[in-house]
Specification:
eight-stranded parallel beta sheet, alpha/beta, 22 helices, single chain, ten-stranded mixed beta sheet
Length: 672
Amino acid sequence: MNQRKEIQDSEIYGNPLLNNIILFDYNGDIRNTFIADTELDTSPVILVTPGEKFYKFDAYTYEINPSDKADYNRLFENLLEEDILPERIVHLWAKTQFHAAETKITEQLEDSFYSMLYMTQALLQLKIKNQLKVLFLYDTQGKNEPLYAAVSGFAKTIHLENPNYNFKVIAVAQEETVQEEGLTQEEKSTLQEKSEQQEKSALQEENDKLKFMLKIITEELLSNQRETEIKYNKGSRFKRKYLEIKSPPLQEDQMQIKKKGTYLITGGTGGIGMIIASYLAENFHGNIILTGRSVLSTSKKQEIEELKRLGADVLYIRSDLRKKREVEYLLKEGTSKFGPINGIFHCAGVFQDTLALNKKKEAIEDVFGPKIYGSVYISEMLKSYPVDFCVFFSGLASIFGNVGQIDYSYANAFVDNYAGYLAKEFPDTRIRTINWPLWENGGMQIEQQQKEWLWENYGLQSIENEKGVEVLLRALNSPYEQVIVVQTATEKLKIIDRLLNETVKTAGLSKVEVVTISDDLSEVTENYLKKILSAELKLAESSFIPTEPWEKYGINSMSIVKMTNQIEKDFGPISKTLFFEYQNLQELVQYFVESYKESILDKLVHKKEEEKSIGKNRFFNVSASSTASREKEDNNKINNDRSDINRNLICTNTVSNREPACKAANVNFGKT
């Protein structure tokens, strides 16, 4: 079928929301199903398949190397040459099942995170200003797929960095097979007869699967619903929801930590690691195995001596959790000295703050080391070194996203989903993952100005050491695999709820054509931007020459963040890469005049007072770490998908209370 002819002969597309669809798939089956469906009338549908190198078969069919960043650049450059503006992308390369082997992890990362990153970077470099909707679909094949599910952290972060990019992560669960074990012979015969009656040809079954996938894709592309994480199971659509439940106070006889027990703390010489070690030493007088990548400094040696004075026997083993053999050595040496390990606190983490546009693979792998590879290698060793519990320390970045931390958000989202995977692999081990805010004395910190901004806009506050330890103990005792920790003010709880359930207000580019004099708008906009530049860089407004590059004025990543936050107070969410995409004041002014005419008139020309909303950008730097046709009647009714029940807990602490007030949230996929 000649797609080019269809486009030329059609003055108006059947549905403009289904135009310019790009499919990253292994073959043309889904595309052919799209084209064959006359009710959809989509134009055009571009197919991109994985191969050894970039190759253009025709204007609508390409092959690229999934691991070659340059191929993605060539792909989108070619599409623009063909006058095909990327608007809707469907990514279907995530096919393989999760496996703990390093080669398999690398393969899944290439098919998910890196493919999505290179695609996004290519689009950002082309400065595409239109709204972009991206669907990342994967088949669960009846099991948890933590590396694919983790793309949710990527999706939430990229939307914060560029509000025009809207990503959805969609898990598609296959029909569950009926197990014959325990059935009577009569029941087996009845089942067999029923199976034979319903049996279809292999071709028909494949056609049904394709039509089902087409239905999911079209409905999600047409949907205006905001949620990022979606699951389809047995034809029903589910979205992740957070339901608060009461969490009772911890009783002393419910403690999971044993007196004189042996505990391993990764990232043990970091701020949080040492806080936990001190608590264990003082209260349980057992054995503590600390591990980190660095040689112990004098100050760290002194801290370890203090742990010994508190009553603990301490062993420090230097290891790189990215290397499986070093994890094996770590556990072997620890058990040789102290005997069986009772529990593991996996606190290790690294972050490299840079906008997605500028992320490099080497730095990303450094972030992935402890969170992804380290988590897998440690858990694999549980087969030989069983423990009572294993606690993975995660961050709020995976829940809310975090500007500059697309890799860290993804890595933490992996940890969150991996807990569910491990809970089934090790039913006798208490597996927990905790999403922490900043710890007051944790190792990873941000500037005071950023802390004040987080508190002012979102009520997010660092958690005190004592309260952090208490939450840790309660999380260990809870029946929930995931615990989300937020310290906030009572009056800010509604904002947190909106953030968790992804109902924050968002703003897009102006779609209203405004008739006005461009030169006047340019002058007003230039003066506005000069004021912001002057205030942040401490330079006179007259010193900013429109054609001079930003480098001349000493602009850095932190100043860009602060200026972007200031601009968002008037314009709502904007791309965080503007100061990278547009090299000087003149280019930036032109962008705003072309993209935000209505806002300029409203906020700058007419001087209307801004109405604040919670839809502004979040720069957390938090580390420890509709379907189209109808809204279903039971949209507000939670229908539990049993594979995801009882997994998560939200622990909130209101600053007006001295004692932590914990609330649990059962996080599951609620039917929409």
